[in-house]
Amino acid sequence: MIKKSLITASVLSIFALICAALLGVVNFFTSPVIKAHEEENIKKSISLVCPLYDSNTMDITTNEDSKAKTTYLVSSKETEELLYVIYIVDATGYASTIEMMISVDKDYKITGYKVLSSAETKGDIKSHDFNMIGSNNLDSFDTLAGSTYSSKAVKKCFKLALSYAKEEFEGGQK
Amino acid sequence: MEKYLVIKGPYLRSADITKRNTSTIMRDVLIALLPSIAFAIYKNVVLVLINGIYSSIYHAIYPIITLILAPLTSLICEAISLWVMKKRGIKTFKDLVEELKVSYGIFPGLFIVLISPTYIPLWVLLVSVAVGEVVGKMLFGGFGQNIFNPALVGRAFMAFTFSSHLGDAYLTSYELTIDAYSAATPLTSYAKAGAASIDIVNNYGGMFNLLIGNYPGALGETSTIAILIGAIYLIIKDVIDWRIPVVYLGTMFFITMIIGFIMGQGLWFPLFQILTGGVAFGAVFMATEPVTSPKTHLGRIMYALLLGELTVLFRLVGNMPEGVATSIVTMNIVGLMINKYVTKLRVEDKLTKKNCYGLVIFLVFFVLLFVYDVVMGVK
Amino acid sequence: MKDNFLKGFFKENPLFTMLLGCCPALAVTTTVENAIGMTLAFTFVVVLSNLFISLININEKIKELIQPVRIAVYIVIIATLVTVVEMLMEAYFPSLYSSLGVFISLITVNCIVLGRAEAYASKNKPLNSIVDGLSMGLGYGMAIIMIAFLREVLGAGSITIWGSAKLSLIPVFNFLRIEPISFFVSSPGAFLVLGLILGVIQAINNKKVLKNKNKRQSKKEVK
User: Fold this and answer.
1) Residues of A in contact with B319 (CB under 8 A)
2) Between β-strands A58-62 and A97-105, what pairing exists: parallel, antiparallel or unpaired?
3) CB atoms C79 and A34 under 8 Å
4) Strand partners, C34
5) Given B194, C136, C170, C205, which residue has the most CB atoms within 10 angstroms?
6) In this predicted model, which residue has the larger pLDDT, B343 or B67?
7) Structural domain spans, chain B
8) A29/C61 Cα distance (integer angstroms)
9) Do C177 and B123 touch (CB under 8 A)?
10) Shortest CA gap A10–chain B (Å)
11) Model confidence at B2: pLDDT above 60
12) Distance CA B324, CA B245 (A)
């Protein structure tokens, strides 16, 4: 009885081993391609929010300690000085969660932003200009007429990004 | 041996009343609709023509065109689907005409056009009519076998699919010139306003005007007076049961009154809620539809109580200003259950321990929904 | 052989006659491109899993050995194939991968694949199993492409075949003065379209059955 189940178990594990080996081989070939794709995607979206981003002179690293969902640090290759911090933050709007990518420079000014995902029913918040570029506070925020809740959520995203930046890099750490 | 005979609704005991059949019921419904249709034409065509503000004559008489085309489309869809599906052995054209006479294909189209915005684009209206007629009625087996009210299936399809077309379509060209309307209908104004205030009623000409119905809204459902005339006619003719409209409107009035008191508003708030939107029309013509509403008195009261609660829920808590169509379609599903349960109760003829669970569940659900309505409805 | 290949399209179509694999059929059919991608991934998996499983079962001794754990073995094989497809797609077709999303991994638990493995491949020769897999995969693909075509044309007014090979029907819609009905791209629209197609197929089948019955009856009468 025990012998029988042992045989069964070993048959199953042989199959599992063969399959795992096969997966390992495929992974060996595909993983560099996948990684390259991911990096390219990050670079593409960063260049959208940081108009001055240049892949030849700047490096991208991720900050795992940050409070935000995802944080990218853009620093200069030569001096290793931190130039931009890019946050991906989200807030709840009228009918969906709005996810935004916001880039903050060393003077805590917003250099660019992009609404990554939203399924709001009214108004085109993806292309609306919220008048926040170059600003370091929320005074200049321009509400999108007709969609109060969506605008509130966008405003909250900016607030979060600015507060994270000030919190995490205040006190000369930068 | 068959103990009970299962046949399709609406039922009529022809032994009690002579010279009455489904045909006369439908004729009475049509007569009861006449005041509403007349008022709709007065408000949307005659008033516009008198005031002389319209871009073209086509635009001015557009409501009449929709009033003719929608029932016609519905009838044509019915004929085509009857012919394609070969229901009940239709073989020749003569059979088809005979079948059309007893399947009342114009009603879904007529009801949809009466509960739709006045200036809805024609193709949107006709697509919705076709969907309501074919998907809501014919695919279930035709007249008397539909689970959902076909007109409301079409209307709900319109509301969820073409929501971008509905907003501005409510206003006639004359009403577009009135500044006081902050949004298309009183209900959208209320949904948009941050807090409840009696200004909403005043902007639309006061409570009496809401009763008369001279404010922007769907084609046939603005005038509560006209609908009431139709309702009284139907109740006298014993076509509809008075319990459904009275309990439905009563429940809505009661809940919104409590919500209004909590918000510190007067009696205008519940009145505003039952005078605007399609509540009166829905309560009189839609909720009482003989095929889809429960068949017993107790069942009808249970049905109407839940209807009132659901309408308040969809209006004040959901993100659409209207709630009548959605709540009646939802209750059509529950209606089947209520029907089954109440019939069982009636056959057993007394409340035993076993069969009172249904009532207990109903009461618990009712109270929970009631509390939820009141808590969430307060702005 | 020919019958074996054709059965997956009409007689034993996994989606239309057996209603298997409804979940991806409703979820990924928003564009024709997605449906084509799903078809390719699905056909790849079902053909190879059929092949391997029939190869395993060809040897009586191995067949006996794996008998108690055969479902686990099948699932391991299918899961491996699906993961391979997922990796390849993520590496070489990233946009398709992101639009199909989790439904690639869900092929693993798609009842059609396991069903063919248990019902057909374990009892038949490798070559027949491959044909069976091809037939099932392409039959399923035909079904979901049909749904996707209707949904995309009605709901978005376009036909996306692959990448930028896209045919826009918006001019036709404009000419008719109507707009695409976005309802059909949403999930309730998928249910409606699938239901209508099933209804039409059922109606055709009923008609055939009725005809056969009449024929038989008239033959009897003649006798």
Assistant:
1) 94-95, 121
2) unpaired
3) no
4) none
5) C136
6) B67
7) 21-164, 182-215+240-377
8) 35
9) yes
10) 54
11) no
12) 13
**In percent, how much of chain B has pLDDT > 90?**
24
Q: What percent of chain A shows pLDDT beyond 70?
A: 88
Number of Cβ atoms within 10 Å of the Cβ of B349: 7
What local confidence, expressed as pLDDT, does residue B1 receive? 43
Give the DSSP letter string of B73-141: HHHHHHHHHHHHHTGGG--SHHHHHHHHHTT-THHHHHHHHHTSBTT--HHHHHHHHHHHHHTTTGGGT
Whether the CB of C177 is below 8 Å from some CB of chain B: the reply is yes
- Residue found under tokens 């050995």: C65
Whole-number Å distance between alpha carbons of C167 and C161 = 8
Amino acid at A141: F
Closest CA–CA distance from residue C39 to any residue of chain A (Å): 21
Question: Letter for the amino acid at B244?
Answer: I
Considering just the CA atoms, what is the radius of gyration of chain C in Å? 20
pLDDT at A122: 56
Cα(B34)–Cα(A18) distance, rounded to whole angstroms?
A: 78
- Helix intervals (H) in chain B: 22-41, 47-51, 57-60, 62-85, 93-101, 106-114, 122-134, 150-161, 163-166, 186-192, 199-203, 206-212, 224-236, 243-262, 268-275, 279-281, 297-312, 324-348, 357-377
Amino acid (one-letter) located at B370: F
pLDDT of A127: 72
- Looking at residue C46, its pLDDT comes to 92
3-state secondary structure of A59: strand
Residue B200 amino acid letter: I
| Cβ within 8 Å, pair A22-C84 | yes
Low-confidence ranges of chain A (pLDDT < 70): 94-95, 118-125, 145-147, 170-174
Q: Report how far Cα A36 is from the mean position of its chain's Cα atoms.
A: 17
Contacts B158 to C, Cβ<8 Å: none
Q: What is the pLDDT of residue B303?
A: 92
CB C144 within 8 A of CB C187: no
Instruction: Find which of C80, C92, C96 to mutate to test the A interface (most A CBs within 10 Å of its CB).
Output: C80
B160 chain-C contacts, CB cut-off 8 A: 183
How far is it, in rounded angstroms, from Cα B70 to Cα B76? Answer: 10
How many other β-carbons are positioned within 10 Å of the β-carbon of residue A77? 12
**Closest CA of chain C from B158, distance in Å:** 10
Residue whose tokens read 């194939």: C81
Give me the pLDDT at residue A62, please: 76
H or E element in which residue C5 lies: helix C2-6
Beta bridge partners of A58: A76
Q: What are phi and psi of A86, to 5 degrees?
A: -115, 125
Chain B, 127 to 156: residues with Cβ < 8 Å from chain C are 127, 135, 139
Longest dimension (CA), chain B: 70
DSSP B46: I
Cα dihedral sign for B36, B38, B41, B44?
Answer: negative
What pLDDT sits at residue B247? 94
Contacts of C176 in chain B (CB under 8 A): 123
- CA-to-CA distance for A75 and A79, rounded, in angstroms? 8
Identity of the residue numbered A47? S
Q: What pLDDT score was predicted for residue A172?
A: 47
Here the tokens at position B201 are 């009623």
- C72, C87, C91 ranked by CB distance to A12: nearest: C72
